[in-house]
Write a structure and sequence with these properties.
By secondary structure, the chain is an all-alpha fold. Among the domains are: 3-75, no CATH class; 184-215, no CATH class. It contains twelve helices and no strands. Helix 3 (48-57) packs across helix 4 and helix 7 runs antiparallel to helix 8.
Length: 216
């Protein structure tokens, strides 16, 4: 350390003064977008990736790491936004994949609010429900029409890729959505054998394991 650094440390009256340096107050390309980030944080958007995507569309040249660091250092310490936080992607996925009749009233209202604020999710919800109906009622004859409708959507690239992957193994998918037979019983036996193997591992040899498998 230089003499000036030692003098600055010795004259500091608060711990914060010891952590100041040239890099902390240096101007960056993110400065022009910081007011927008602060405003979106107060509006309830607390996802750093979402904030970065928004300012990237506005022409911000900085990468995600810069936005993430700014959110961690400056925004995380601020009071939480007023009002309920938007649901996470995991929560929205659960609402979309759950049968409508199995959703409680509070989840139905939340799903309705989410779909009202996102037209893309409204279209996705219709495709998900129709695909679930095919799986539950073995209506494989509607699969080709569903794939055609899903691949024609331009605002849902993930759904389009999923439909294209179904075309790669179309015969097997068609059989699974049409025939009444499935491998559920076999998978159940395999899961049971794995459970017994884990329970007996390190405790007994092959002969007791074989006997327990046969007796169970």
């Amino acid at each position: 350390m230089t003499l000036n650094t030692i003098l600055r440390f010795s004259r500091a009256t608060t711990p914060e003064e010891m952590f100041t340096g040239q890099w902390q107050n240096r101007a960056t390309k993110l400065d022009a977008y910081k007011p927008y980030l602060d405003q979106r944080w107060q509006e309830g958007c607390t996802n750093a990736w979402k904030l970065w995507e928004e300012i990237r569309e506005q022409g911000c040249p900085r990468g995600y790491a810069g936005v993430r660091d700014y959110v961690s250092r400056n925004l995380r310490g601020k009071p939480q936004p007023v009002g309920p936080r938007p649901p996470s992607a995991h929560a929205v996925t659960r609402l979309l994949l759950t049968h409508p009749d199995a959703l409680p009233e509070i989840d139905r209202l939340q799903l309705k609010a989410v779909l009202a604020n996102c037209p893309e999710l409204t279209a996705l919800s219709e495709h998900v429900r129709s695909f679930g109906h095919m799986v539950a009622h073995l209506q494989g004859d509607q699969l080709l029409a569903w794939i055609e409708a899903a691949t024609s959507t331009t605002d849902l690239p993930s759904l389009r890729h999923f439909a294209q992957h179904l075309e790669g193994d179309l015969d097997a998918v068609m059989a699974g959505l049409t025939l009444p037979w499935n491998s559920g019983v076999v998978e159940g036996h395999v899961n049971r054998l794995k459970m017994l193997k884990r329970q007996m591992f390190g405790r007994a040899g092959f002969a007791p394991l074989r006997k327990r498998v046969l007796l169970s």
